[in-house]
Amino acid sequence: QQQVKQSPQSLIVQKGGISIINCAYENTAFDYFPWYQQFPGKGPALLIAIRPDVSEKKEGRFTISFNKSAKQFSLHIMDSQPGDSATYFCAASTRGNTPLVFGKGTRLSVIA
Amino acid sequence: EAGVAQSPRYKIIEKRQSVAFWCNPISGHATLYWYQQILGQGPKLLIQFQNNGVVDDSQLPKDRFSAERLKGVDSTLKIQPAKLEDSAVYLCASSLSSLSREQFFGPGTRLTVL
Questions:
Q1: CB B46 within 8 A of CB B26
Q2: Which of A9, A68, B37, B69 is spaced 20 to 30 Å from B53 by Cα?
Q3: Are A92 and A9 in contact, with CB atoms under 8 Å apart?
């Protein structure tokens, strides 16, 4: 049972454009929503995370938008750069040191 | 600060053989996770340790997979015997404590079962 649904599966964006990746969840007990970035041959690295008490969090060019009523959250990458080309995973977990449940990932390619 | 270390980085074995992976978490991190990442999918938890005790192994195929974390530091994950469908990247992650939500991942071990 996939608890976090991620889309699109792949995304091609022009340099300088905005990349948008969406995730939806079903478990209302989730209270932590991180995004991980993974380059080929590397492990996932935390990019940015949000909790459901805020609707938006911004760190540099990366922004998470969170819609609690719709049970959706999204990652926006502003001014996308070729160096942002990677696979991005959304994830979620519940309170109490529970493991992360990951989406299937989005392969982002930023072309010049 | 050194990150999560894993070895080997790559392993190719025949089906029905056994294999072991090693993980050294970030110093001082009490919680350790093993994830399986099949090509084209997100990581899936296999087992979670808190110090040297198992917290969650509900998704570990216990007929062939085993893991231990003696002394609450390093951990090993073993597969015996391996099946073709075990081909995946095995990721180790650690977090500071049971209250810390951020997990730090190692580079993974890519296993190919022929």
A1: no
A2: B37
A3: no
Phi first, then psi: what are they for A60, rounded to 5°?
Answer: 65, -125
Q: Spell out which residues of chain B touch residue A91, defining contact as CB-CB under 8 Å.
A: 42
Secondary structure class of B59 (helix, strand, coil) = coil
| Contact between chains at A49 and B48 (C-beta distance less than 8 A) | no
Amino acid at A90: C
A99/B45 Cβ within 8 A: yes
Mean pLDDT by 10 residues, chain A (112 residues): 87 98 95 95 94 94 96 98 97 85 97 94
Q: Distance between CA atoms of B92 and B33, rounded to whole angstroms? A: 6
- Closest in A43, A46, A102 to B42, CB measured: A102
Tokens of A67: 């819609």
